[in-house]
Design goal:
With about 300 residues, this protein is mainly α. It has 6 helices and 4 strands. The strands form 2 sheets. The chain has a two-stranded antiparallel sheet with strand order 1-2. Strands 3-4 form a two-stranded antiparallel ribbon.
Length: about 300
Amino acid sequence: VGATVPPKNSTFGVTFEVEEDQNLLLLDGNKVIVCHASEVNLSQIKGFDEAMKVFVEFDSEIESKLLEIAEGLQDAGLVLGKPETLKFLYEQFSVQIKRTHSNFKQWSTVFQCFLDVIYWRRFNRVSRFIRDNTKRFGDLAKNDADGLMQQAEIELNGIRDKMRICKSVCKTEKNDAECYYLCLLCKNHEDDPDWEDAHACYQVKHSCTELCAYCKQMGDDVCCGDKCGHSGKHNCRKKPHTCGKPCSLSQYGGCQEKCNEESGHDELIACKCNAETHYCIEKCSVPICKNSCKMPFNAANH
């Protein structure tokens, strides 16, 4: 991805020691072409305004922070579209904009907006390189310049696809060590040999760090015993606050395993976990897809 050095003018992020061949130059004068995050047209990023509006509840300065983090990363030092780069961008972003149990879904949307800013800055820089180095030829080279830009856009679209995050729930039957945070690998990573098959949220520890809601009511501060991103109340699982027996729908996808009904509930009431939806466990019928079906297990005609 590039060797990092401390940032010079930014509160956030890092800058890169950029090799000469990573720079795009104005050939008539050898001037380095630079584009800034602040120059990105944010209206072209799908859902940007809504994502910022929703996240203000968690961070009132979200938009300015997002742009400042991006500005602290030189575009020339980023090899976009690679697994290592995506994880690096996550690390830089999450240092300043924290993902929590309360905001992880909204945070994932904001992180996607951050990646979009990084992508469009690259698009602007490449476009400026082509435009500024061909404009002196005027109409004589218009067709060649248009062809060059078209080829560049094809390459850039390939990079953009690798910067769209998956957003599937990480914890699956085959990936039990993960939690319920959303996957931050690229979309369709299972079909790309350069990316891992298993979903990943990049979290090091997957245990929820919030306090047990039941113990808190009794004046005790005890950590939740469930995985990050779980549904329902925080539960230490050390005391019999809830049933705790296996969920009656545990054979289906998305199950959170332990019954969350009251302790000693009527036996006629099936044990049910906190999961909002239990999914069909059959494989997707599309031949090239490796994923399980995302329809509810009891949905008709799917």
